[in-house]
Amino acid sequence: MNITKLFRPEIKKIKPYISSPTIDDIAKEIGVSKEKIIKADSGENPYVPDFGRLGEIKSPKVCYYPDPSCRKLRNKLSEYLKVSEEKITCGNGSDELIDLLIRIFVSKNDEIIINPPTFSMYKFYGELVGANIKEVLRNKNSLRVDIEKMLMNISDRTKMVFIDSPGNPTSTLIDKGEIERLLRRQAIVVVDEAYYEYCGKSAISLLLKYPNLVILRTFSKWAGLAGLRIGYAVACPLIINTIDSIRPPYNVNSFAQEAASSVLDNKELYLNRLKKIISLREKCVSYLSSFSDLFVYPSRGAYILIKPKTNAKTLQTYLRKEGILVKLIKSCFLENTLRMNLPGPSEMKRIISVLEKYYEN
Ligand SMILES: Cc1ncc(COP(=O)(O)O)c(C=O)c1O
Question: Is 0.90 topped by the overall pTM?
Answer without folding.
Answer: yes
